[in-house]
Each structure stands twice: as C-alpha cells, then as structure tokens.
Amino acid sequence: MFDRYEAGEQAVLVHINFTHDGEWDDLSEFQMLVSSSGVDALQVVVGSRQSPHPKYFVGEGKAQEIADTVQQVGADIVIFNHTLSAAQERNLEQRFKCRVLDRTGLILDIFAQRARTHEGKLQVELAQLRHLSTRLVRGWTHLERQKGGIGLRGPGETQLETDRRLVRDRVKAILKRLDKVAKQREQGRRARARAEVPTVSLVGYTNAGKSTLFNRITEAGVYSADQLFATLDPTLRRIEVDDVGTAILADTVGFIRHLPHDLVAAFKATLQETQEASLLLHVVDASDERFGDNIEAVNSVLDEIDAADVPHLIIMNKIDSLDQAEPRIERDEEGVPKAVWVSALSGQGIALIFEALTERLSGTMVRHQLRLPPSMAGRMQSKFHQMRCIVSEEYQDDGHLLVDVRLPQTDWYRLEKREGNQLGDFIVSD
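Structure tokens predicted for GTPase HflX:
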C-alpha cells in the first residue's frame, strides 16, 4: 500500500534510554522481538536522551550516526525500540534512505506472522489498519491530488480521502465479523456457565512458558517455541480436577511491556476469556531476572482489560533453570495456595498445580452419608456419578442405597434445592 523502499531482512536496531523518567527498557527483550520477527540484526545503536527529539526522535548527531551505520553495513531497515510518530518515521526514512519501523510496527509484524486461525488473522488485520490509518498521509507523495481525467471525474475526492474511506470500510467489515465471533464465544461461555463448568485462563508475560504448560496439562499439542508471541490464537481444552470435576483451560496471547493499545482493542474477543475466567493462572518465568517487572507489566494489561479483580494463582515456571529450586506450593496467611513452583518442560510439580486448583476452585467441601430409598436411589446415584463425588456406595438388603459423598458446599446446596430440599432428610451421618 505504500511507495517505499523494498523492505529486507538486514536491520540496524536503535535503542535510546530516557533518563528523565528513570525507565530503562530491556535491550535484550528488544533483540528477542527482532529475532522473533525473522530479521537479522547487523548492528545496535544505543544512546541516551532527556526527551525525544520532535523531528527525528533522536538528536541530529545520533540521526547522522545511524545514517552512516546504515550505509556502512548495507542495512535495508532501521528498527526503533520505541513508538514513533508518523512525522518522525517520514523524516527518518528521508534521512536514512531506507524503511523505518517502530516497536508497535514490529510487534504487529510478528503478530501477522503468528496468526493461524481466521479470527486471529482478522484481529491482526484490524490492529494493522488502525495503526495504518494514522500514517496514510506519509505513505504517498501524490495523495493530495484530486482525481481527474476520463472516468475519474465526479466525487472530487482526493486519493488520500479515498484511501481513508477504504480503510474505514474495511475496519467496519472486520469489526462486524469479529462481533459475530464474539457472540459465538459468548454463547460458549453461557453454555459453560449453565453447566457450571469453571474456566481457568493462562496469562503471563510472553515467552513465560504458557503453551508448554498448557501442553503438559492437557496434552493438546499446541505450538510452543522459545520465542516471543509464539501463541496468538486462543485454545480451549477440557481438564478434570479432583473434587471439582470438569474445568476448561484456556491458553491466551502473551503480554509485554508497552503492548500497543491497538492490539489490546483488536484482541478484545480473545481477552474476554480472561475477563470472565473463574481463575487466572499467571505463569511467570522464574529464571528471568526481571520477573518482578514482568508481573507488574501483566497486571497492568489485566487492569486495562478489566480483569484485575479475577482471582489468580501464580505459577513460577522454569525451575529446571534454577539451582536448588524444588516444586512446592506457597500459601498465604490463611493457608490458601497463592503460588506454585513448577517446570512445564520437565513436568516437575504439575501434580501440585492440580492440587492447588482443587483448593482454589472447590471452595468449602462437605461430606455426607445418605441412606436413599429405592424410589430415588437409582436417579441420585446417577447424578452423584456425574458429579464425581462418590466416596463409597452400597445397596442394602431392603433396596436402600447407602452412599458416602464429598462435594463442594455450593454444589450440595444447589443439588438440595433441585430436589426440593428433601435430601437432608436422608442424611445418616456427616
């Protein structure tokens, strides 16, 4: 869509630290992003500034240094680890004589490569179009000319206006299709709610090991790799949890610092699985020195999508990369599990996750021994089996069923209500 220099795979990276706010972005993470996009980084140019330069983002001297580096190494593209304005991109491209990409454009490009499902591709295209709509004015040199000539007279619409209208129309069409997807997802969630099936959603910083953990728990065979944003498309699988029964485990897209707002908006349908989950499994790379910052970054995105209040359980992953780290459950002052230390790759501690899930999802458990008359023994026995709550059962000589059940208190109250509050009459011991 743009008249630009041909983009290549050889890049010069630019990383500027701004000292005025004390925030030093992680250069190694930026290099991982570039590597994940399939680009070969020839050289990294670093620098420090108090604030961005309005014309070039970097200063005049640094801009010339980058231009000289591009000429020396023969790079096809310059990638900034920052968000650039449309004017800054245009000015830098004119100065460098090659394509310039900012952090948002880089992440969008990675998402475009990773999207596999129809929904994922629509979401990425929507984010790209929203990003593109603010930059149309710099992409062409002829956009302000009005159409003219045979077959082009009539509307008096400039090329720029035409392109903006086409982008708006395409955005509307995508939103319509994503709205349909969202309604289908909502139907699925309502069906699970009616069946009282809890949903557990995996969240975490990108490359924390969510998909590896998902595969270890569900044996789903979901694509996983040691790269950023390996997973874009949400995957749901059924799991069985003791004292809870069936639950749904959802694998979602990873988060990152400075995640573009266009992406958060585009992936609204996907992230709704996170908003409406019964419990979040916040997967953390325990071997990352900055895991504390990563947790804060994820919490920030959760707050942005209104999921900050959803109960969560931290999964400290990759303990196989740590010295003397053992699988264990950490508990709060009330004895409730708050963190589980595991290795999704080796399988260490996976059983502890299920143990913690049982405690976090089941709530208060009750145990009753019932003596049910023949008139209702068969029907109730079938229900108890469906709920997977039978500890022991025995038919007596007179046809009565002596059954010992253990189940969440909420399930017991719900069952009692359905049976007209008469189950309590058959309790022989608790």
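The first strand starts at residue 10 and ends at 18.
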